[in-house]
Structures
1.
Amino acid sequence: MWRAAAVRALRGGGAGAPRAASGSAAAQLRRRLESELEDIRGAGTWKSERIIASRQGPHLHLAGGGAGIINFCANNYLGLSSHPEVIRAAVEALEKFGAGLSSVRFICGTQSIHKDLEEKIARFHQREDAILYASCFDANAGIFEALLTPEDAVLSDELNHASIIDGIRLCKANKYRYRHMDMQDLEAKLKEAQKHRLRLVATDGAFSMDGDIAPLREICQLAQQYDALVFIDECHATGFLGPNGRGTDELLGVMDKVTIINSTLGKALGGAAGGYTTGPKPLIDLLRQRSRPYLFSNSLPPAVVGCASKALDLLMESNAIAQSMAAKTQRFRSKMTAAGFTISGKDHPICPVMLGDARLASVMAEDMLNRGIYVIGFSYPVVPKGKARIRVQISAVHSDEDIDRCVEAFTEVGRKHGALS
Ligand code: PLP
């Protein structure tokens, strides 16, 4: 035995070393995967992960050296991911309620804090009830299948988030895809869908690649005219859009016309994890009976619940944080436009700096990091061909100096690479 162990150790196969599965099927799979990975590299669409060695905040330490980097690519819109009160609430919840529930909600995975958070979410959005999920991806995966049958129809914006697209794929309703924010096309599809029992229009409230906001007033008007329900995904709106940060429906004055809201706890609301659906009570009751990601996945850990609950308290006490983020967004957008850049979208903290060329976006993002500014370039297939960009995300915890340094770095790098004259 010792001899086999020594041979294994010499071959690098000691205890803890990865074991490669043997057999021709495993070898065939390995070859296929390696070739697929090579194709992704060859297509220039390889996504690598930069390792952060500090908290999520306006300034970061990157593993391997980079310190004091200014972070402009988090969805930490309100800066609550490292807010001292949010962290304290998580620690208290961890100590009082433990690490986790080892169970789904309906078996023994519901604690008082889960019910309190659901009640708080419903109150925040002024809806009847809410249900928690492990993520908004799960909330989107669960809702359409539970709600819609082959007798019904769902009408979806072509640029909706991948999780909405996947959720719709899972349901058996009739599917209509309308052109991005195109109300004429939506109307045509609504007319076509009159033959079905129920119609649900599904849209992102704010679209994360372009920073543009769905024309909810017009969508709700069409929905009323053609007897449809409206569903919005508010991941990039909850907590900061609208006078009180309630989201796109508040911003556009249609809170009483949107039936269902899905959103995340993993962005502005503390940034830990978790998602939810909020809307009419019978819908939430039905989701507790039928929604598969809810029925077959573990409860949210208490520390995560504690973070989100405190984030909502802070937002319900005051809208000062959201207003400070809006002012900083305005500062960045106007200074960049004055410098000669085109920024897509309007008034949203997602500020895509439009460059067109994929290589240009990638080298400029790299050069920005050399100047201490962390931003990410996006190109095809994440965005359409010829529409490459660097996406900048503004947070309430950026200082005016951070914003100005970012604009200065863009100006230098843009001139160097010919994006600015
Ligand atoms: N919907 C939208 C519009 C998103 O941007 C995201 C996250 O990127 C999700 C859903 C998924 O949210 P979560 O991270 O909570 O799964």
2.
Amino acid sequence: MKFFVDTADIDAIAELNATGMVDGVTTNPSLIKKSGRDILEVTKEICDLVDGPVSAEVTATDADEMIAEGRKLVEIAENIAVKVPLTWAGLKACKTLTDEGHKVNVTLCFSANQALLAAKAGATFISPFIGRLDDINIDGMDLIADIRQIYDNYGFETEILAASIRTVNHATQCALVGADVMTAPPGVIKSMINHPLTDKGLDAFLADIKSAGIKIL
Ligand code: G3P
């Protein structure tokens, strides 16, 4: 499973990138707002840092404007994926931009039917929002599993990019049900390493290193 980082925080991306954990980055208007940066500037910096796809979201709701914005966004760098909302206008923009050879991430997906439409429009990525479904007492992971089955039934190449990941359990479950990608905040990815037995075991080894005076260099 590929890991995308769901942030526009350059330092956080750089820190995780140094560990090999960053296969791509996703941003959205809320994350751009949180960064306090200009969208074009911060997106360019992210693209310079990361080799994989970097999703940048359009601001328009009209298809022609989304297409124009998408064409501007892809000028930033070769690894831009234009993010469009799951509306008919967004799907029209997806089809046009995909036909032009650009990567498109269709976002705000909350149903298997929406994911089917996005695949038919040629989306590179579909972004089902797990946490926001969990928020309204619907199991977001069931949606990932349903989309996996539908895409596999018909050989759709659209990648399932599980989004709105809030917990480390979401990460495990995404990998178990076969999401192609998960995009998670840096804090969630960093928490995946935590295990008390690792800490306890390391403490014991360090005590023995100290008491025995074990040295390598
Ligand atoms: O990738 C989408 C994500 O940014 C939304 O997350 O936690 O606001 O539902 P959240």
3.
Amino acid sequence: MRIKKFTARTEKEAIAKVKNELGLNALILNIRKTKPKGIFSLFRRPVTEVTAAYDDKTGKKPEETSNEQLAAAARETAVAEETEVYKRQRDQIVSLEQKLFAQEQLLSKLTDQLSLNGLSNRSQGARKYDNRVIQVFYDTLVAQEVTPEIAEKVLEDVSAIDDESQVDIKLVSTVVYNTIVSILGPAEPIEPVRTKRTRFVILMGPTGVGKTTTIAKISSILMLYHNLRVGLITADTYRIAAIEQLKTYAEILGLDVDVIYNSQDLENHLEPIVDQNNDVVLIDTAGRSHRNQENFKDLAELLALLPDSTKYLTLSLTTKYEDLLSIANAYSVLTDYKFVFTKLDETSDYGAILNLCYLTGKRMAYITNGQNVPDDIEVAHPENITKALLGIGGAHF
Ligand code: GDP
């Protein structure tokens, strides 16, 4: 099975393109409208994007295709290539625009908030700083559910200027922005490159946070966009549905799933798995209650077998912050890890990300923002999350 995307002005046109190019048996995986980005986006219409899967072994043979169809296919390939170039250019422009506008947005938001505060003399919490600019930052961070202690830490350097007469909005906002970016640190996703040795990546975390879906998203991206060889293992044998779910995604990608019931099983499977010459092997684990250390025993055994693996602690941002913190602490006792934050689409409060990165010192890898495989995942950009925390943008684009 292979996956391909088609875009057109309408859903009907996009599906017609799929059928025309891939034949009637192509499987439609996902249909969505995408909004154009960038400064001229207001003038551009949304497009419909259809993701389709097809079996390249049973695809149409060239001799069955008429000259007319071949010409149509050639036209479509040219359009697809143009779209690819256009997409790359658009992404570059978007990223430049974002950098340019971040500072201006921050300043204009601050100015608005300062004049509002000035008019009503009302602040969300008790007034903490004499300097109104710093107070606005404090209120914004706390409203995003950054804990008051961590908000104070972020503002430590700038709060030395606790004097109205020295308000330099630009300086304060630059320092605050950079402080948050550096607390979050650069993301550490899977390097999408070939390596000599197979890399193992283990996804851990509570039930229902999106581990299996995230594995499906990551493996699709590594395979389809980076041409890497990917292997899948599931140790989530408590839920039959979990195995079936991963197998369904695996089937679309043309992969097998190794099911392991205990660490002994993994030990037996390791050699053949490594022999398959995969670049990356992703391992799904069963959700565990962080309050029951007994539950962690089999996970600890599995981790011990793969000491060089990368571990991702998957956490849903819809979980209560106190629970997120105790989950992160419980897993810290067990192993080192990086964060995958899921379900950003279901919240507008991102404070927990900053709190957890600050308190654990761990780095982020990915954020996920919806149920669509493979689209709703991205490498966590500290700049985007910082902007969201300061109220000047979403944490994902
Ligand atoms: P697991 O038990 O941790 O493996 O979780 P699953 O991968 O089975 O996901 C549980 C549910 O969360 C499923 O309905 C997924 O579609 C959904 N889900 C996963 N990631 C996201 C996300 O980023 N946003 C939203 N809204 N739902 C998600």
